[in-house]
From TrEMBL:
One of its GO terms (molecular function) is rRNA binding. One of its GO terms (cellular component) is plastid. It comes from the Eukaryota. PROSITE patterns: RIBOSOMAL_L21. InterPro entries: bL21-like (IPR028909), bL21-like_sf (IPR036164), Ribosomal_bL21 (IPR001787), Ribosomal_bL21_CS (IPR018258). This is Ribosomal protein L21. It is found in: Plastid. One of its GO terms (biological process) is translation. Keywords: Plastid, Ribonucleoprotein, Ribosomal protein, RNA-binding, rRNA-binding. NCBIfam families: L21. It comes from Ostreococcus tauri (Marine green alga). Its main location: plastid. Pfam families: Ribosomal_L21p. Belongs to the bacterial ribosomal protein bL21 family.
Length: 176
């Protein structure tokens, strides 16, 4: 069973035309092949749909609920937030007080670890787990402009803010 259909529409309704054609083809449980050709004046769109009767064409390459393995070794609490970290990567957080570039630091507040098979969660922290890191630099983030005003009242205030940040390299994740 082979069915063909040709349609000409404006660009505003081209998406709806494609949707109608593909929904008609999926209602017949057939595989669809949609190709569109935009003419030089870009006002007319020509859609061609060729439908063939084949149940085997419909399916997923991988099931939609599965994905790649997680890319994190631990979840740490640092600088007022939580971060997924892994060895050999660098991360940024709000400024850590009293640390200089090149110094070694250890994060004891580990919320969870992952060893490749199953995660280990703490209540609230994993006992015995820690993340060791080296401070790369302390810097100021991009400037954020804060502009306050009251309409019709001649009240205008413009302030800038640069958040102090720390960049660190995770060197070792000790899992409990």
């Amino acid at each position: 069973m082979l069915a063909s259909m040709t349609m000409t529409a404006t660009t505003a309704s081209a998406a709806s035309a494609r949707a109608r054609l593909s929904s008609k083809a999926s209602a017949e449980r057939v595989g669809t092949k949609v190709s569109s050709l935009i003419r030089a004046n870009k006002r007319d769109v020509r859609c061609e749909v060729t439908a063939e009767s084949s149940i085997n064409q419909i399916g997923f390459a991988t099931p939609p609920s599965t994905g790649a393995a997680p890319k994190w070794d631990a979840i740490i609490e640092v600088g007022g937030s939580q971060q997924f970290v892994s060895e050999g990567r660098y991360y940024e957080c709000h400024s850590l007080k009293g640390v200089e570039p090149g110094s070694k630091i250890a994060f004891e507040r580990v919320l969870g670890t992952h060893d490749g098979n199953a995660p280990t969660w703490g209540h609230p922290y994993v006992s015995g787990a820690r993340v060791e890191a080296t401070v790369l630099e302390n810097y100021d983030d991009k400037k954020v402009i804060v502009f306050k005003y009251r309409p019709k009242k001649h009240y205008r205030r413009k302030n800038g803010h640069r958040q102090a940040m720390t960049r660190f390299l995770v060197t070792k994740v000790v899992k409990a």
